Amino acid sequence: MAIETISNTQVLFNSVPVGEPTETDFKVVTVAINPQSHLQENFLLIKNLWISLDPYMRGRMRNPEKGSYSSAFELGKPLTAGAVGEVIQSNSKLYNVGDVVLGHFDWANYTVAHEKAIQQKIDQSKYKFPLEAWLGLLGMPSLTAYYGLVHIGKPKAGETLYVSAAAGAVGQVVGQIGKKLGLRVVGSAGTDEKVKYLTETLKFDAAFNYKNGDFKENLKKFTPSGIDIYFENVGGEQLEAVLDLMNENGRIPVCGMISQYNGAAYGVKNLFNVIGKRLLLQGFIVGDHYNIFPEFLNWMMENTSDGSFFYETTISEGIENAPKAFIGLLKGENTGKQLIKNI
Amino acid sequence: MAIETISNTQVLFNSVPVGEPTETDFKVVTVAINPQSHLQENFLLIKNLWISLDPYMRGRMRNPEKGSYSSAFELGKPLTAGAVGEVIQSNSKLYNVGDVVLGHFDWANYTVAHEKAIQQKIDQSKYKFPLEAWLGLLGMPSLTAYYGLVHIGKPKAGETLYVSAAAGAVGQVVGQIGKKLGLRVVGSAGTDEKVKYLTETLKFDAAFNYKNGDFKENLKKFTPSGIDIYFENVGGEQLEAVLDLMNENGRIPVCGMISQYNGAAYGVKNLFNVIGKRLLLQGFIVGDHYNIFPEFLNWMMENTSDGSFFYETTISEGIENAPKAFIGLLKGENTGKQLIKNI
């Protein structure tokens, strides 16, 4: 073991954003870790390799008294994220030095973590995926897509699926699972480049730029038989337009409402459609559904091994660039899963 | 058979209301039926005994091009309603003169109806209920209450149920079924008299007047453990307040949104609760669920025969008073089921 002090760059939660977060809501600091200091029992020192950034984290950047499904980040402490890391030191009976693990670690080079922060050891001999796949293709967003579409959407071949934020981490998987299941898949995104990606690379049946022209007219044009499943990532005005175009007995897995996280919420005025069309809206948090992880893993093995399943990530290098990457994520500047590579 | 002409007072759909319906949107006419004119095959002449008025009918008073779950009433023709009537003449193999039947007939003294307009013959020897019970206690609103609460709400003893429009035709049954199933039942209504009725007569655990004071504060006060099931009859601002008070994994059977039927719809701004709290919203139309009628009938027999189940109706006499009664119904002037007695 080297004697030198380990230099650990961390991103701290500096202030609760007013509206969209800015860089001043974060604080990048470098602290020293003494590699000879004793780890408490059941604790480990993890070196992060990959860190996942996700829109839900905006909801955690709040004052602690506001209730939500995930606890608030602590002001002055590092933000946390799903991550893949390597065990550098271990005072745990469950994990050894050199293990590569999936868990919930700091936005930092290193995390001193309780063993409970680790979700699982990654068996690289059994699952031959690149490590970042565990945060992406096999990660929380894909499990989210699978659970929402399959278990709530209950798709039947021939039905029409509309997915908003379709080029996002969840959306692109939703659409591709939909195609595998025989659905007509329509998606929207915020740039023409993403739209092209959806139709040309992901083979969606149709896609359009929600910023161009009349959203509802465009959606209607691309869903001539109406919408049976709306995989909801956006909320607000999009939800309102979709409600008018849903078919009877339609299902809406409510995964996210990214348009509603920053600033003023939009009032949805046509919820009466829920009655007349017998619609189901079911909110869900993927964290409740890790019991289906084996089923999901099997499905992914069967359906992605032939190379027909496309997964794109936006990789930013260096912990110190995480705030900028996260701000960009909330503005839709990424394509697909946003990762930080610890260099 | 008498030779005299039968005088038939009918209420016609005269004009599409702008906002709340007024009496000029209806037209009361008296036409003659020649009792000797030949009935077409499978048709019957029905004398109405009881007619049910329901808020959903407002939605049918529209121009025919607007989609909804029930077809538009036809301008210049009688409005129609669930009704109990007696067969006066029959050219049907299924029903005989003298049969008392439940069906969908005109707002009128008499209807010439196809046998398909009849839902069932009422066996008065087997089911010893007063005839109007088939439109009330055993009628569509109670089946609505039962289906929504039991099949969508999936109540567990000890949970908290909130029901809006609780003194209405559906609401009063929802609350009482809830009490039988061991729920804490909280309701709201629009007058202090109705509130008293809910707590004193129907034995709700709590009730309040939604027009007095801060709605959300009142509701919060009466639901100290939060809300597990919201039986939604009102929509709009009430739904918005309730969403903030729902417990995790809460269920919202969406039965009606009476606040949204007339004029400007309210925009619900906090649907993000659906995600964080993993809420279910499920719209339903009772007409889809008549397959559970036997189950429902058995439950009602078991639970209402001891007299502990209270059912109230507002009875208006005379077909010609139906428009006024219907307008009053939409304004909440009735208590419980609104019926017209044909005299």
From TrEMBL, chains A, B:
Gene3D superfamilies, per the entry: Medium-chain alcohol dehydrogenases, catalytic domain, NAD(P)-binding Rossmann-like Domain
Keywords (A to Z) from UniProt: Oxidoreductase
Every Enoyl reductase (ER) domain range: 24-340
Keyword Oxidoreductase: yes
GO MF annotation terms: oxidoreductase activity, acting on the CH-CH group of donors, NAD or NADP as acceptor
Pfam families: ADH_N_2, ADH_zinc_N
Presence of the UniProt keyword Glycoprotein in the record: no
Domain of life: Eukaryota
UniProt-recorded name of the protein: Enoyl reductase (ER) domain-containing protein
Organism: Clydaea vesicula
